[in-house]
Each structure stands twice: as C-alpha cells, then as structure tokens.
Amino acid sequence: MKRLVPLVVDALLVILFCAIGRRSHDEAVLTGLLKTFWPFAIGLAIGWVAAVVVSSRMSGEAGQAVRFDGTALWPTGILVWLGTLCGGMLLRVVNGQGTAFSFVLVAMTVLALFLLGWRAAIKALN
Description:
It is a single chain. This protein is mostly helical and 126 residues long. The protein has one domain (2-125). Helices cover 76% and strands 0% of the residues. Helix 1 packs antiparallel against helix 2 and helix 1 (5-24) packs antiparallel against helix 4 (101-125). The longest helix has 29 residues, at 29-57.
C-alpha cells in the first residue's frame, strides 16, 4: 500500500491541475473535468511505467539492483513529469483539444511544480 501513495499523490495533483485550469477559464469544473483529465491521466501512467522500467535497469554500488522509489526526483519524478506533460499534450492534439503554446508553457511549469515539488520537499526534509 505504501508504494501506491506516490502514484495517488501524483494523480490527485494532476486532477488539481486540471480543475484549476478549468476554473481559471470559467469552465464547468465537475462536468468537464474528465474531458480535461483523461489525456494527462494516460500521460501520467506512461510516465510511471517509464520510471519503473528505467529504475529496474539501473544499478547501484557494486552492481546491485536499485530499488524503485516513487518519491525519487530521478528517475521517477522527471519521467512522470515528462510523461504526463508530453503524453497529455499529444493526446489532446489527437483528440482535437487545444494545445496553444502558452498552455503548454503553463502546463509544463505547473506540472513541474506539482510533480517535482512534493518530491523535492520530501528529499529536503529527510
């Protein structure tokens, strides 16, 4: 169960990102949230799969396998952030949703703050 906590935190933060975006554009938050969330949710899943795969191929000192850490900035945080951003944007394009340059910049920044920020805070506190 403890291993799922970082995934749940990421999912909640992506939902928050989508809800804030809908609210800031005076769009119905609850009724349209799924439409905004699903591309980023799939991107989040892609990022998590990539992080698990990359972590499983990494080796530590003396060639020992590195244990997967969902709270790690690298590779987990970076790959989850990039997967969520790139996957979400690509799926929005395929689905005919907007990907204006300013939106990409805002999404890149907010998702970095959300998905990397909590991981950085945990590392700073440990």
